[in-house]
Amino acid sequence: MKLLHLSDLHIGKIVHGYSMLEEQKNVFQQIINYIQSEQVNAVVIAGDIYDQSIPRNEAIRVFDDFLTELAQKNVPVLLIAGNHDSPDRISYANRLLTDKQLFLLGSFNGSLQKVTLKDEYGEVNFWLLPFIKPLSVHDFFEEHSIESYDAALNAVIRTADIDYNTRNVLVSHQFFTKSGVEPIRSESELNPVGGLDAINTNLIEKFDYVALGHLHGTQKVGAEHICYAGSPLKYSFSEIRQTKFVLLVEINEKNNSVTTKKLALTPLHDMCEIKGKIEEILSKEFSSLINKDNYLHVILTNEEEILDPMEKIRSVYPNVMKYTPENSRTKKDSINTQQNSEQTNLSSYELFSEFFLNVCGCTMSQEQAKIVKELLETEVAE
Predict the structure, then answer these.
(1) Are 37 and 6 in contact (CB under 8 A)?
(2) pLDDT of residue 341
(3) CA neighbor of 170 nearest in space, from 127, 139, 202, 140
(4) Bigger pLDDT: 63 or 355?
(5) Does the pLDDT of residue 361 top 50, yes or no?
(6) Looking at the 3D structure of the chain, how many domains does it have?
(7) Which end of the chain is more exposed for a tag (fewer CB within 10 A), N or C?
(8) How far apart are the first and last CA of the chain?
(9) Does residue 337 belong to any structural domain of this protein?
């Protein structure tokens, strides 16, 4: 069976004021072409369909067009909600769409949801697990202590009726880690303080393939068969050195190795950085070497103040997203900021308390504070 594994579409994403919808339409067409050229048997989309829980109408239309094209190919689609998605919006009309082989799961309802497909070797079981939090899982497993993401996933997997003698694929949108392996992170991901959302890959190693979403860089975590597909486009300048892919996964008979192949996606406009003095950057000699239509982060090294730098830069490079001054004054400011931060010397608990206050607009309850302290103590002990 051939699967096309993708994730983190973030339809409707706006990067530094630029809408990514046309870019997204372009890569979706490339994905459709891959489905046909590679004779794909199923498509797995591992969460973060939209960039916002309440997407704009134009984003909904783009996803509707994409999903309609997938359905017209008569290829099953297995899709889960990510942490950016509204579970109810993802699950809308899912019982009707099942007849079209569109399996859309927005929320966890107490157990892993199984979809079984068949190939020449028999059945392949797909276990769909949308994004979960400890609190959302706790109500279904009151007899278990669910105080961390790790414990939440452990409870879900442990109580599922999984026959590991058959072929099983897990589709999940979480932050999985392996001791000694540093994952590739991106500024465009939501990064909780202190890695409190981390889940050990030991819990999922028995699956034949694990199709993950959440991290925006294509990567394997802990084992060859545990893979993040990554986002189909660059959504921050921290990703400029990444090439974006979808993963072609081939699952043969049980106990045969699962193979993955990266299929490259080409953006309409690449995302790049250029650096230098403004007079150098604007010169014909320099600009002739640059694709002027790319989305650019311009780093200016001039010591003197420049009047209306963005206007000057955009006279040559129309798609400049961001400009940053870098000179002796900014370096001094950076050092002062770092020193002030070091002098503050807040504990992990104090940092989290500030984060909670900024996000929620209130302080933690005594019960919440107790859970955070216990989690941080556990993290230190490990």
Answers:
(1) no
(2) 46
(3) 127
(4) 63
(5) no
(6) 3
(7) C
(8) 40
(9) no
